[in-house]
Amino acid sequence: MRKKKLVLLAGSKETRRALTEQLNDILGDFIEIESFSSEEGLPSLLENELVIYSSYLIENEVQHIIGDGCEIIISRRTINYRYIDQLLALPYGTHVLYVNDVPETVSESITTLMNLGIDHIVYHPYYIGKKDAPPLEIAVSPGEMELVPRSISKVINIGVRLIDITTIMTVLGKLQLPTELGWAVSDKYTKRIIDLSRKLTKVNLEANVLNRHLKKVVDGVNDGILAVDLKGKITVFNEVVGQMIGVSPDFAIGKHINTVVKNQELLHFIFNHKDDEDYLYFTLNQFNVMVYRFYMKFEHSIVATFKNVDETIKMEKVTRRELVTKGYVAKYNFDSIIGHSAALIGTKKVAKKLAKTELPLLIQGENGTGKELFASAIHNHSSRQNGPYLAVNCSALPEDLLESELFGYEEGAFTGAKKGGKKGLFEQADGGTILLDEIGDISIKLQARLLRVLQEMEIRRVGGNKNIPIDVRVISATNKNLSRMIDDGTFREDLYHRLKVLSLQIPPLRERSTDIPLLAEMFILQNGHTDIDVEPAVVKMLIQYKWNGNIRELKNTILYMLAVCDGKTITVDDLPNEVSSKREKATNPFTQGKDNILDKKDYYTILDCIYTINNKGVPASRVKITEEAEKTENPLTEQQIRLRLKELAEMGYVSIGRGRSGTKITEEGISYLSVNLL
To answer: Where are the transmembrane segments (predicted)?
Structure first.
């Protein structure tokens, strides 16, 4: 028996193929299906045929081939369920460009998708002739891929729209096919609807689980989080921001922001601010809050985070206490470095400038000059002051132990290694500063490893096989002559230049002798002695002593004298032997061969006048010294001053320049004045 026939007419080759495949799948066992497309070419004439149009839009294209006796069915089309998964996988609120050939098919498709429950996506229509496409990343099209703008980075092809069940049932009726076939077709469509329903249900369940998880995450953070779409609808509103604004999340989510946020300044900042990113401080329900807002371009959303400033300060204090407990904090700042000598003031001035950089710094100076003090002060004066500060004495540990301390180790790296391994000092100093004291004492092997750290800003633990990036400023210190060590082959020249990108030389105490009285007073007070006096003769001898051990030796001397002195005054008898034994050698030159001119009032007057003039930033001429002396109880003539200046210069207390350079008081002269002014 000859099969009944159905003729399919479509506009494009792609549509013809897809719909022919669908009709053959459903009706191919019962009817003959013949198909044509305008794109591929139409037959010259059709007569006495049941003809199905792919869409009413092709009616004008095919009308000229429709002859006598033809019966026309215009298809109703629906989405191809096979490709629904790709749309369901898109996040809520995703903006997509929906692309098809004409406005009518675009509108029909979007309506169908929305009716199917795929309404979590924001669809933007696009078709032939539409000039401007919004700047989106994703496009969706039912097989019309060639129409998608080139600017789109991701295209989802949901396949050609298929003929729906009502059209299929119409075909069955027109061809008078068996009722059982209608039931089979209905069952097949029902199965597809059930499959789609299952997919939607599964997606909804997964979305609900994910939403609950995300809600717990968002509610668990310390900051408030609020997000709105461009229409002002609140999409995210966690419990923290609810406490700050005084509204529950259940009430806020889904509402317009105007009904939730009553603070007009905050409302304007979040929703109407021009900048993509900005922050501003507010007081909300007695919370001091920093609000940071930013625009998410592709999500078409505005997000604002609310940080409790008081809580942040409290957390910083807790962190600071933890760093102190672990010893990872710099104890000293520049105010801790006592003295007013020109040498010290100049060194502190340079050090403050060096603190403002991130470059490696090498601090050099004799033992006891305060290198670690300067390193600590530099850290506290830098942008890393809130980060950890770790100091390690490289001469205090054996090579292998120093290596594991600096770089850390992995579990099982050596006998006795801790389970789980251990972070090294470089890792622990991340975000802060590390001081490598006595850097001149490390071995050649460790020098090579340290060089790599400085080059790459990465470390590898002992026994490890991966590099760990670090963010650390490296300060090193030494009392050794590294240049000489390079010549001797005991220090790597390449490491030297890596360490000494910046350098700071700390002056020895003998070059800042005017600071000795202040330092002595500080050490006395630090030991709780507020009622102890020091004889001027003792201070004089302390100033004149050479202090090869620098400040450390001076401190030890003060502690010794506090321990042995009787009563409330430290005398020359309390000086330790090594200082008192040089008493004769250290006698002031004013008392040797100059008729004991220390007792001559005019010499004190001259030195004091020069000191006063120099402090004004100018050299002292004889005329200026004369004018300054007239203000004192011991006025002197210019001739007297000329004679006395010559003697003071011979004793090293002043430096007489030529012409306008005038006279300047020396460190020795200042030291003498300091002693006799105590």
So the answer is: none
pLDDT value, residue 274: 60
CATH topology classification for 327-505: Rossmann fold (3.40.50)
CATH 1.10.8.60 for the 509-580 domain, yes or no: yes
pTM of the full predicted structure? 0.49
What DSSP string describes 131-166?
Answer: ------SEEEESS-GGGS-TT-SEEEE--PPEEPHH
Euclidean distance between CA atoms 558 and 320, whole angstroms: 33
Report which DSSP code applies to 332.
-
CATH number of the domain located at residue range(s) 589-677 in this protein:
1.10.10.10
CATH H superfamily, domain 221-311: PAS domain (3.30.450.20)
Nearest-Å Rg of the Cα atoms of the chain is 45
Q: Which residues pair with 284 in a beta bridge?
A: 287
Q: What CATH architecture is 81-159?
A: 3-Layer(aba) Sandwich (3.40)
Nearby residues of 206 by Cβ (< 8 Å), 6 or more positions away: none
CA 101, CA 55: separation in Å to the nearest integer?
12
Q: What is the pLDDT of residues 451-471, one digit of tens each?
A: 999 999 998 888 888 888 899
SS3 67: coil
pLDDT < 70 stretches in the chain: 1-2, 179-211, 213-215, 273-276, 298-299, 315-328, 415-416, 581-600, 674-678
Give the mean pLDDT of the chain.
Answer: 84
pLDDT at 433: 94
Contact between 224 and 214 under an 8 Å Cβ cutoff? The reply is no
- What are the C-alpha distances in Å from 18 to residues 24, 116, 161, 170? 10, 21, 8, 19
- Spatial CB neighbours of 188, under 8 Å, sequence gap ≥ 6: 26
Pair 628, 617: CB distance under 8 Å: no
Token digits for 596? 């004991």
Q: What span, in angstroms and rounded, lies between the C-alpha atoms of 292 and 280?
A: 7
Q: What whole-number distance in Å separates Cα of residue 40 and Cα of residue 324?
A: 82
Q: Check if the beta carbon of residue 334 is closer than 8 Å to that of residue 360.
A: no
Q: Give the C-alpha separation, 433 to 423, whole Å.
A: 16
